[in-house]
Every structure is written in C-alpha cells, then in structure tokens.
Amino acid sequence: MEAKMIDVYYWTTPNGHKITIYAEEAEIPYRIVPVNIGAGDQFRPDFLSIAPNNRIPAIIDYAPADGGAAISVFESGAILQYLAEKTGKFLPADLRGRTEVMQWLYWQMAGLGPMAGQNHHFVQYAPEKIPYAIERYVKETNRLYGVLDKRLADREFVADAYSIADMAIYPWVVPYERQGQKLEDFPHLKRWFETIQARPAVQRAYQVAQEINERPVVSDASRSILFGQTAGVVK
Questions:
Q1: pLDDT surpassing 50 at residue 1
Q2: How confident is the model over 198-208, as a mean pLDDT?
Q3: Out of 3.60.130.10, 3.30.565.10, 1.20.1050.10, 1.10.1670.10, which CATH number does the structure's domain 95-198 have?
Q4: HSE on the CB side for 162, CA within 13 Å?
Q5: What homologous superfamily does CATH list for 6-89+203-234?
Q6: Which residues form a coiled coil (predicted)?
C-alpha cells in the first residue's frame, strides 16, 4: 500500500530546508506547498490555521501513526521530532541516545538559529547599520560555532550517529559567510559540514529550493512584510 504524502508548507530558508532534508533522508513522500514569505503568504488565514505563529515550516500529515484524522504540526524542531518518531529514523530509541539528540536539537532551536538569524538581520537587512548589534550577533554566532566545533572534535556527527540534530543545525551553517564566519577557523565543524553537504539527500533537498525560489531576494517591499510586524497580522 502506497504511503500517503505529507504536505510541507515551505519556503527557502534554513528552517524550511530542515524539513525537506528530513523527508529526503527518510524517503517520506511529500508535496511542497510554497509559502512565499516575502509576499506575505504566511499571513493567509488558511496558513495561520495550521501555523499560528505565522512562520514556516509547517506540515499536514494525512496518515498519522494513531490512524486518526490528519494532523498539522508547526515549528521546525517539533516537525523533525514528529517525523522521526513516526518513521523511527534518525532519532535513537534508547534513553541516552535520544537525550543526546534532543539536547542538540534544542541547542539549535534556542541558540544557533535565533542568534544567526539576528546576525543576518542586522548585517544584511537592517536599514540602519548599528555597530553594537552587528558585533554582538557576529560574536555570538562565532561562540556558537566554537561550541559546535568542540563537540565535533571526537565524533563524526553531533550526537554520534547522523540524526535530526545534524539536519537542524546544518542549514544554519550554510550561510556562514553572510554570518561573518570562516569555516577554516573551525576544522572539526568544517569536516562535519562537508560530510553533510555531500550527502545525496541533502543535495536533493537544496535542489528543491532552487526549483521553488531560484534567486532569493529581499526587496524594500518584502522587507516591510518580513520585519516589524505586530500582533495585528495574526488577528
């Protein structure tokens, strides 16, 4: 019996890439539903009904493990955990292995993603260049790269075996040059990065991104949509 597809509400951002990487690695049938965040698609009522934080990605699983009605999931870390638990892939079943993976997944969600995201904002997108903000987030990104490099000094992947933690972290390291970082300064991270970059499933996931949004550009119009929103957009 053919597996049912999941719908992946997606745009070509690091958090979006996490889910296509997982789907490709786990060989999950999926359908991309583009959510053009530069055009404001994330504020459509139909999207808000499954992603109340008006952020991509989100999924709808039409064949959940409990056999019930379709289930939607938002937040990229929650989606990775959900899919890993459903498929039994890339998340260890034993207590200690699972704990290793989950703490590094949360490290990315609470640390690397938000700090690198602020780095991107103040370096690339802010209309006014604020030296203090730029220095603060470039340095914090550097510190986090150092944490990751140290972790990888004696292991191939962040939690020993390749897992959802690696899939969550990798897309946030891809734009390292934009973050003011040099991989040569972090030899263990660089080796890990190149290993994941060479994986066929990861390459397929990034090819999907090229097909959806070949030339990502943030214009003045899209900047006003992406940044500075208030609670009014979700009412």
A1: no
A2: 97
A3: 1.20.1050.10
A4: 15
A5: Glutaredoxin (3.40.30.10)
A6: none
Number of residues written out for the chain: 235
CATH 1.20.1050.10 residue window(s) in the chain: 95-198
Is residue 194 pLDDT above 70, yes or no?
Answer: yes
- Eight-class DSSP state of 111: I
Among 192, 185, 143, residue whose Cα is nearest residue 163: 192
DSSP 23-67: HHHHT--EEEEE--TTTTGGGSHHHHTT-TT--S-EEEESS-TTS
Distance CA 109, CA 123 (A): 21
- Which H or E run contains 10? strand 6-10
What's the sign of the alpha-carbon dihedral 92, 94, 100, 106? Answer: positive
What type of residue sits at position 219?
Answer: S
Residue 90 has pLDDT above 70, yes or no: yes
Query: Where in the chain is CATH 3.40.30.10?
Result: 6-89+203-234
Report H helices in 59-215: 76-87, 95-107, 113-120, 131-151, 164-173, 187-197, 200-212
Please give the structure tokens belonging to residue 68.
Answer: 């019930």
Q: What 3-state class would DSSP assign to 161?
A: coil
d(CA 23, CA 177): 27
- Render pLDDT for 47-69 as a digit per residue (tens, 0 to 9): 999 999 999 999 999 999 999 99
* Digit-coded pLDDT (tens) for 130-175: 999 999 999 999 999 999 999 999 999 999 999 999 999 999 999 9
